[in-house]
Structures are given as structure tokens and as C-alpha cells.
Amino acid sequence: MDQTMIFTLPEPASDDGGFVTGTLGSRVAHKLRQKIQDDGLAPGTRLPSEQAMALHFGVSRSVVREAIAALKDEGILSTRKGSGAFVLQADGPNGAREDEQTQQSVQSLLNLIEVRRGFEAETAALAALRRTPGQLAEIEHALLAIEEAVAAGVSGVEEDVRFHLKIAEATGNPYWVKFIEMCAQPMRSAVKVTRANEARRADFSNQVRLEHEKIVRAIAAGDPEAARAAAAEHMVHAAERVRLADREFWRGDGGELARSLAREPILS
Fold this sequence. Notes:
Layout: H1 24-39, H2 50-57, H3 61-73, E1 77-80, E2 84-87, H4 93-130, H5 133-151, H6 157-169, H7 174-182, H8 184-199, H9 202-220, H10 224-244, H11 247-251, H12 253-262
Antiparallel strand pairs: 1-2
Helix pairs in contact: 1-3, 2-3, 4-6, 4-9, 4-10, 4-12, 5-6, 5-9, 6-8, 8-9, 8-12, 9-10
């Protein structure tokens, strides 16, 4: 039997809440993923042509190719030159639900990083203006503690949280410290996810180290604008590293850590 005939396209894209947010390609990928998982399509099932899917969804063929590439990266599709895209594997209902939960949890993580971007930028700028020599020494010591933890093969989560807390303390404003304390648990859970991801790649770990050092140099120099930019850049890159995490990471410890973050109360 020709398995190309049993794949019926899902409903076209809409803005009624049925899609996850993101690019057109990610939205089309979401619909295709959902169709494959919900119907339990057999490996080898061929998708309709790029042209047919582009017409169906009302998008360009480049958007369809973006969606197919995303599902290839997830291990859901494979492509054969001149033949099209084929289902490689389809998760059962439990796997689909777990994937959906993980996607929601990753979005929670990205939301928290977005909030931290503004928070970390402002505290770094104020620390550059107000820090005392003793507070600068504490920040530098906290940075060294992260490096020592990484060298010892441990996660460095507590050391990372302490580093950012020391920067907040150097603002001289106790309310910045109070804010960190109120958000301590979700922040700690978020750092567990990001550091677990970063520990899997030497380039990620090196980026984080350099970003931390750049923040400290700006604070030491008493340069608030450089400190603000360095701290904001650190959070932007943290979000990028989350988005670059591969399927294997989210299928394993990364997914479980992300789901535990989503279950955390926002404020303690």
C-alpha cells in the first residue's frame, strides 16, 4: 500500500491559540508534529510534497523546509533526495504528552530568563557605580568559586546563584537582594537546567565563563553601561543556549529539570 495516501494534512495555521508561538516554520512544525504523534503514523509514511504543504498552510516553500528541518533535528522525520520527507518515528500518546509538557516547561524557563535579563542588567550597572572594595572582592571570590566547582566536576548551581546574589548586594539596595530571595527557588531550578545544558558542551561552558568575567571586569572598572550590557548579553546568550539544546537533552535530565521548574511557585 502507498503510505503517502494515509497522511492527511492538519488544519492550516491560525492565530486562535491552536499554535505555539514562534516563527511560521515552528508553527507549521508544531502542527505536523502533532499530527504524526496523535495519529501514531508508521515509520516510512511519506509527507505530501513541499508545494502541497505550502499551498495548504498558505506559506512559502522555504517555511515548509524550515519546519521539516526542525522535525529532522528532533528525529521525527527523515528526508530522501528526490523522494521527500518521511516519518522516522512517532511517539505514543504518553510521549506526545511528555513532549508537550517539556515544550511548556522550556517556555517557562525562557520567560524567567527574559525577566532576569532586565534584573541582572540593572543590578550589574548599580554594582559598578556603588560597590565597595570589599564587595568587589566578594564578587570576584564568587566567580572563582564557580570555576573551582566546574573544575571539580560539580554543577556549580549554588555558586552561580551566589555570584549573582553578591552583585545584587553590591548595589547597596536591600530590595534588589530581597527580590532575589523571593525568586530564589525558581532561579535555582532555572540555573540547574542551564548549567546542565552548558556542561554537555565545552564551547557553552567557555562562553559562560567569559560572560561572567566580562561582567566582573565592568563592575571592577566602575563602568555601569558596560556592566549593564554585559549582564544583559549574558542572559540573551543563556536563552540562545537553551534554544540550541538538542532533543537528547530534553528527552533526558534536561526535560525533567525543566518540568520541575514549571511546577515551582513563582514567588516564595
